């Protein structure tokens, strides 16, 4: 008999393997190899009867409960009395998540009983927010608790104090999302065929690289190259109660989902978007995917389905196959207006799943995951539905179609998806915390290839990714990003193993081809490009190790003297630029952010160093790190 207790995905797989035995597993694994179709591989697993017994998870309950909400509210009150304010705030939020909510899909007149427990929880959280001096958020919770007559006097008094402490400003709380209240960088001029990419870029195609993006003209350090909203995104399990499930921003006083105890939203706007789109499909399933310890990227392929029916997806994929067949490889993925749009499924669908490059073990495991996802879809009762919205038992043809669709998307996402990294910057003492909060699908950003010496860096603003140039990018040069962050700190072998395992390719960038030393292995002496051959000339030796040109100034030749003079002028500029970078870094670490003046100095200094210093060099890495630090601190300063 199958184990019905809560299990992880790994435990489900282990139980399945134990049930079928080694010989049967060997036979099944033999069907997962290059050359087999996605359809045949998924069908092969679906036809194994034991898979239905052991790979069907039990749904984890996520019911609201007055009893649990009151218990948590009591704990929060104790923490508030003890002045453990941050823990009290977190506990009150958990009580709000647990409390029964009105069905917001119904008109007010049909919502039934009053929800006193919910109002009490909001009232107590407003008290914690007041003590934490978060008066704007306190006002929002007072408004949310306004249906609690027994606390009306207390709430009115707290509201008056908030307004007084806010100096009676016109601000009385906002229902805007954190996305709306934060300034996401914008493109100066979008590309006409790639709306989320700068017109400074254009699409290119090479058989060995596929589609990629190159500079249409020179791009300066710090310039915005791409601003893209995720096609879909998912938080990691540990962030579900602290970050908005729609916009992925951290929120201190969130609104919960009215139907489950798992997710929160930063505003009514994000709550409405989540419930009308992807969260509605996952609402009663997400607690199970969390208990299964599924990665956020697995939830993304589930979210792709959103609220389209199986028959609609069949029509969509047939239409996309017909359209892509008409286009050359570089144009596949355009929508009906012949635009590469991140808002349409077309661009993601045009990406390849790399079946031929994947080892059989990877093909097999991803098929198992797809199998479990199909079972969850069926158990959730919100995807396989009839015309009236009631759950139904789908025909096997539909189940196999959706399973194969999920399987293909899972493989595409594994080599084209992105981890969403949020940075928290604080001063006095200075500290930067890097958090991987979830995963997202950025169809346009995924067209940008990897390099261990990337020309652009990603910055995340909630569910938006912003690419900025990390150094000058010349016309015709490819835009690249690092699929493994901090590649200059990792040796070649480590990078190659990671890229092959995760993305199924062998990197042949300049850093790998020349086996650049890591940052810690680079020599300490300053080098400037030789004015004759562009190789590095050390300030200590003054002799080019490649062409042998002598920069000591001993030559009597007029042309040689001009070359030496040019080189020494470059050396002087490099030293000045490096000093500027070091000074600004110290100022940034001390909390002295001057914004525009600092940015102009950093940009100019990066330009000079990239022009005269041969890579790899600690000066170049330090300058790029300072540019990245500047933008992270600027974003943090704006949010606070």
Structure write-up:
This protein is mainly alpha-helical. It has 4 domains: 66-173, Serine Threonine Protein Phosphatase 5, Tetratricopeptide repeat (Alpha Horseshoe); 187-229 and 445-513, Beta-clip-like (Beta Complex); 232-416, no CATH class; 522-639, no CATH class. The protein is 45% helix and 11% strand. The chain has a 3-stranded antiparallel sheet with strand order 3-11-10, covered by helices on one side. Helix 2 crosses helix 16 (360-380) and helix 21 runs antiparallel to helix 22 (618-639).
Q: Kindly report the average pLDDT value.
A: 89
Tell me what portion of residues adopts beta-strand conformation. Answer: 5-15%
Name the poorly predicted regions: none
Please list the strands of the largest sheet in the order they lie side by side. 3-11-10
Helix content, binned percent: 40-55%
Helix/strand structural class = mainly alpha
The biggest sheet, with number of strands, parallel, antiparallel or mixed sense and barrel status, is:
3 strands, antiparallel
Number of domains: 4
Q: Tally the beta strands.
A: 14
Please count the helical segments.
22
Question: Ends: how far apart?
Answer: 55 Å
The outline comes out as globular
Which value, in Å, is the CA radius of gyration?
A: 28 Å
């Amino acid at each position: 008999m199958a184990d019905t207790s809560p299990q992880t995905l790994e435990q489900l797989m282990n139980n399945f393997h134990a049930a079928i035995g080694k010989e049967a597993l060997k036979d099944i694994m033999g069907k997962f190899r290059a050359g087999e179709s996605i359809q045949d591989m998924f069908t092969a697993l679906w036809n194994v009867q034991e898979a239905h017994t052991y790979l069907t998870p039990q749904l984890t309950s996520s019911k609201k409960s007055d009893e649990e909400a009151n218990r948590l509210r009591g704990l929060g009150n104790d923490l508030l009395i003890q002045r453990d304010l941050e823990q009290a705030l977190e506990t009150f939020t958990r009580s709000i998540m647990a409390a029964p909510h009105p069905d917001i899909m119904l008109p007010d007149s049909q919502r039934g009983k009053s929800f006193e427990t919910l109002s009490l929880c909001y009232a107590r959280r407003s008290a914690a927010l007041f003590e934490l001096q978060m008066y704007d958020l306190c006002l929002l919770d007072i408004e949310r608790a306004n249906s609690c007559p027994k606390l009306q006097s207390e709430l009115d008094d707290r509201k008056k104090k908030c307004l007084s402490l806010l100096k009676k400003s016109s601000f009385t709380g906002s229902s805007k999302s954190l996305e709306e209240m934060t300034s996401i960088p914008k493109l100066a001029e979008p590309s006409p065929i790639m709306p989320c990419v700068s017109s400074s870029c254009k699409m290119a195609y090479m058989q060995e690289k596929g589609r990629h993006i190159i500079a249409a003209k020179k791009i300066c350090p710090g310039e915005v190259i791409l601003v893209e909203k995720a096609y879909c995104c998912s938080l990691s399990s540990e962030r579900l109660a602290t970050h908005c499930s729609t916009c992925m921003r951290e929120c201190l006083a969130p609104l919960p989902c009215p139907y489950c105890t798992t997710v929160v939203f930063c505003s009514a706007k994000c709550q409405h978007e989540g419930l009308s789109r992807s969260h509605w499909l996952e609402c009663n399933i997400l607690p199970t995917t969390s208990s299964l310890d599924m990665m956020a990227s697995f939830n993304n392929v589930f979210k792709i389905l959103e609220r389209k029916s199986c028959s609609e997806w069949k029509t969509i994929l047939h239409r996309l196959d017909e359209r892509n067949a008409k286009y050359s490889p570089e144009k596949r993925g355009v929508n009906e207006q012949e635009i590469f749009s991140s808002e349409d499924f077309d661009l993601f669908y045009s990406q390849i799943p790399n079946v031929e490059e994947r080892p059989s073990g990877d093909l097999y495991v991803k098929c198992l995951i797809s199998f479990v996802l199909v079972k969850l879809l069926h158990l959730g009762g919100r995807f396989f539905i009839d015309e009236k919205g009631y759950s139904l038992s789908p025909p096997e043809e539909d189940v196999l179609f959706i399973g194969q669709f999920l399987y293909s998307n899972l493989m595409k996402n594994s080599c084209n998806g992105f981890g969403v990294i949020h940075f928290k910057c604080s001063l006095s003492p200075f500290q930067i915390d890097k958090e991987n909060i979830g995963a997202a699908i950025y169809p346009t950003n995924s067209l940008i290839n990897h390099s261990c010496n990337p020309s652009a860096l990603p910055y995340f603003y909630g569910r938006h990714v912003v690419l900025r140039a990390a150094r000058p990018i010349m016309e015709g040069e490819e835009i690249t990003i690092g699929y493994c962050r901090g590649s200059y700190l990792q040796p070649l072998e480590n990078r190659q193993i990671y890229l092959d395992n995760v993305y199924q390719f062998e990197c042949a960038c300049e850093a790998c081809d020349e086996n650049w030393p890591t940052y810690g292995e680079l020599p300490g002496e300053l080098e400037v490009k030789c004015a004759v051959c562009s190789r590095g000339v050390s300030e200590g030796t003054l002799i080019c190790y490649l062409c042998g040109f002598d920069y000591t100034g001993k030559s009597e030749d007029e042309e040689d003297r001009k070359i030496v003079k040019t080189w020494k002028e470059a050396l002087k500029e490099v030293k000045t630029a490096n000093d500027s970078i070091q000074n600004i870094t110290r100022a940034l670490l001390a909390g002295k952010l001057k914004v525009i003046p600092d940015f102009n100095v950093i940009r100019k200094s990066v330009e000079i160093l990239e022009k005269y210093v041969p890579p790899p060099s600690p000066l170049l890495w330090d300058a790029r790190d300072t540019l990245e630090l500047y933008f992270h601190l600027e974003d943090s300063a704006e949010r606070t």
